[in-house]
Task: inverse folding
């Protein structure tokens, strides 16, 4: 395809005065890619040719290309040049979400830059989903949650609650719950903190949103594991951050591969206990390397441990935060994956110097989480029921992943190899044929399975074809039936 054919829809001249030339060129190319005027896999013209076309320096074009590559819209192949990426970052944000037609979108007129970023990067998930579907990876074993026990504790809290519990709550969170969390993460994950370093949030997603609001300026670089968690990508992009993918190997995030022009990163997002979605546990040498790199560059580390409690074999590794003596690590946790999804309670463990700023932001956004629910959860933890529930679920989830692996070995051998997950609530099944994982996942969803393709979580990296399979929220019978359906899909 010639330059004229490839870039025929771009304006011939830069509208002087509106924005820097490289930014304008980047935006025009990005928009042409997203509107499919530039097709996936299309070879990009040379930087020298574009510089002549737009009467600018070659360095201007190179800068625009570098930003598009960092954002995942183009990719460079050694000895062949630059091409429009086959998998765009916008595919990552639409993984497992219903398609939204252009006619369904509300008008964007009058939105702020942040408003447009939020609307562009976040599509709400449906309010409810059908139960009984394998291999849903978004929920714990709700069928085994001790509802009667929770109800008794809730009744006791409501009957005995002082009037103050019905008044204005604390933006930091309910004090007894913060104390219970500090004690629990100190014991279970070796997190070093006092109760006054804990901020209660409406789940991990609000915690990530607060981080983006308070620590990112527009254009700040956020280093992100690749493949990685879409919710974090959305939060940081909506906050104006420029997400730069960093590859992951068997030891975790490869921070040493960050190019020199991205080493002024503001944030590094990582899931070291159970990497999302690959399930890797970051090694101790890699943790120390990451921490030292962040300290040296003056970057914050956001450590997300949403299912770290579920480890089935091997020695548990303490939280990355436990190694931090410099106040660099922000620790994120949630109860939705440990108890039940509608309990929108999570927490941040913050370096002391950030606590009051985060509490102020929380007060501005929604004042505080419901105090009565916080009080019920505090009782649940302090009475020892939370620890008992986690130990019970650890045993049950270990059994469920074994059922999945055994069923897959019997029914899917030679077509899908399923890992025995060492931790977490999901695992990866590796496709053995040449068929693309997104094609297989689409057929599986059409047959009633809830499956995500591994490639949907890649920002720039090229992963082997694989399927993410949740097991924690599925009964053994659901898992076996799911494997039977998957066998028919793979035939």
Result:
């Amino acid at each position: 395809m010639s330059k004229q054919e490839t870039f025929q829809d771009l304006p011939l001249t830069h509208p002087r005065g509106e924005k820097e030339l490289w930014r304008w060129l980047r935006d025009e190319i990005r928009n042409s890619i997203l509107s499919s005027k530039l097709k996936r896999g299309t070879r990009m013209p040379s930087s020298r040719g574009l510089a002549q076309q737009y009467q600018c320096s070659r360095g201007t074009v190179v800068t625009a290309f570098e930003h598009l590559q960092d954002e995942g819209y183009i990719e460079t192949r050694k000895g062949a040049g630059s091409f429009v990426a086959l998998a765009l970052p916008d595919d990552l944000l639409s993984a497992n979400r219903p398609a939204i037609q252009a006619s369904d979108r509300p008008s964007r007129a009058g939105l702020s830059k942040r408003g447009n970023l939020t609307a562009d990067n976040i599509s709400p998930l449906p309010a409810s989903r059908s139960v009984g579907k394998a291999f849903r990876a978004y929920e714990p074993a709700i069928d085994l949650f001790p509802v009667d026990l929770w109800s008794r504790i809730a009744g006791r809290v409501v009957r005995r609650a002082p009037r103050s519990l019905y008044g204005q709550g604390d933006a930091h969170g309910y004090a007894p719950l913060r104390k219970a969390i500090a004690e629990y993460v100190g014991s279970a994950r070796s997190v070093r903190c006092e109760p006054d370093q804990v901020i209660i949030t409406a789940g991990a997603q609000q915690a990530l949103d607060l981080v983006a609001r308070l620590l990112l300026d527009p254009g700040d670089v956020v280093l992100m594991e690749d493949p990685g968690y879409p919710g974090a990508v959305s939060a940081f992009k909506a906050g104006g951050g420029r997400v730069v993918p960093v590859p992951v190997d068997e030891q975790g995030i490869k921070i040493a591969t960050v190019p020199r022009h991205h080493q002024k990163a503001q944030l590094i997002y990582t899931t070291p206990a159970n990497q999302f979605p690959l399930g890797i546990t970051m090694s101790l040498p890699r943790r120390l390397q990451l921490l030292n790199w962040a300290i040296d560059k003056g970057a914050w580390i956001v450590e997300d441990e949403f299912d770290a409690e579920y480890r089935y074999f091997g020695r548990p590794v303490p939280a990355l935060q436990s190694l931090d003596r410099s106040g660099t690590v922000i620790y994120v946790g949630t109860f939705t994956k440990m108890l039940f999804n509608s309990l929108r309670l999570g927490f941040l463990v913050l370096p002391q110097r950030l606590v009051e700023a985060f509490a102020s932001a929380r007060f501005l956004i929604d004042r505080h989480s419901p105090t009565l629910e916080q009080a019920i959860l505090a009782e649940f933890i302090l009475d020892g029921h939370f620890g008992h529930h986690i130990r019970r679920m650890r045993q049950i989830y270990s059994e469920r992943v074994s059922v999945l692996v055994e069923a897959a070995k019997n029914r899917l051998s030679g077509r899908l190899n399923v890992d025995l997950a060492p931790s977490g609530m999901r695992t990866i099944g590796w496709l053995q044929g040449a068929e693309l994982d997104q094609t297989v996942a689409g057929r599986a969803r059409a047959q009633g399975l809830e499956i995500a393709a591994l490639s949907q979580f890649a920002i720039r990296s090229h992963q082997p074809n694989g399927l993410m399979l949740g097991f924690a929220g599925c009964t053994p019978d659901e898992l076996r039936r799911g494997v039977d359906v998957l066998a028919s899909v793979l035939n």
The chain has 16 helices and 14 strands. The longest strand covers residues 242-249. The longest helix spans residues 385-411. The CA atoms of residues 179 and 188 lie 14 Å apart.
